[in-house]
Specification:
The chain is of the alpha/beta class. Helix content is about 35%, strand content about 15%. The longest helix is centred in the middle third of the chain and has 20 residues. It comes from Kickxella alabastrina.
Length: about 230
């Protein structure tokens, strides 16, 4: 992890009591399971009373989560027999069924919501959320305490897919969605797979280039970055 704001993110999350977290999803499959488990934990311990998942209407980069993928995961958790015998013990299977039942319940009563706004598969970088994506920004994201953007594609659209100097602060690269006084905390969780990256200390970057020239797109390095948004006043 070449830029790591984990402690700052935790400092915000631990102040939340029954807050709202939005997760802009990336890959389906095992990664989606991790997102769902995170959301389960946030609700179970009381940091969040609502989690909104943002899927894509089409699999933009082949493996992106769609509504169907999300509902399939919950359905299979409730009914693991749908995918046949996977060698689970009876205890594990019952535990999984229990989780699936809880997740279906969260969806049924609105503790969890699933949305697939058209903006996510449109042509605009996320600088344009307040204008071209105002239904998402005004209607959803500014209501949130923390918005988590998952994955490489979302990161690239967050920073406008530009060849920023590596040391450019992440907040500066975010532009309008960072400086809006109503902005939520914005978190980027990303494995670097292209040479668009910000917020890396100069000395750290020089060390990395000495190790391997392709570190920005090798898929072996990542960032956990934060824009504090309106939390800066707390």
């Amino acid at each position: 992890i070449v830029a790591n704001d984990t402690d700052k993110i935790w400092n915000i999350v631990r102040q939340m009591k029954g807050g709202r977290v939005d997760i802009v999803l990336d890959n389906s499959g095992f990664e989606l399971l991790q997102d769902v488990l995170l959301a389960h934990w946030l609700v179970s311990v009381g940091y969040a009373s609502k989690v909104v998942f943002h899927a894509k209407r089409i699999p933009w980069y082949v493996s992106d989560v769609t509504n169907a993928d999300f509902h399939w995961l919950v359905k299979v958790a409730e009914n693991p027999e749908l995918i046949g015998d996977k060698g689970m013990s009876t205890a594990d299977e019952n535990a999984l069924k229990g989780l699936g039942k809880v997740w279906a319940g969260f969806l049924a009563v609105g503790i969890w919501e699933l949305k697939d706004e058209l903006f996510w598969t449109g042509p605009y970088g996320y600088h344009y959320l307040p204008t071209k994506g105002s239904d998402v920004w005004e209607g959803e994201l500014i209501k949130s305490d923390v918005v988590i953007f998952k994955g490489d594609l979302n990161y690239r659209k967050l920073v406008y897919d530009l060849e920023w100097p590596i040391t450019t602060p992440f907040v500066k690269a975010l532009g309008s969605i960072a400086v809006d006084p109503r902005a939520p905390a914005i978190v980027a969780l990303r494995t670097a797979k292209c040479d668009t990256i910000t917020g890396v200390d100069s000395d750290r970057a020089q060390e990395l280039f000495k190790v391997r020239n392709d570190w920005m797109y090798s898929g072996e390095y990542g960032v956990i970055q934060l824009s504090v948004g309106r939390w800066k006043s707390n």
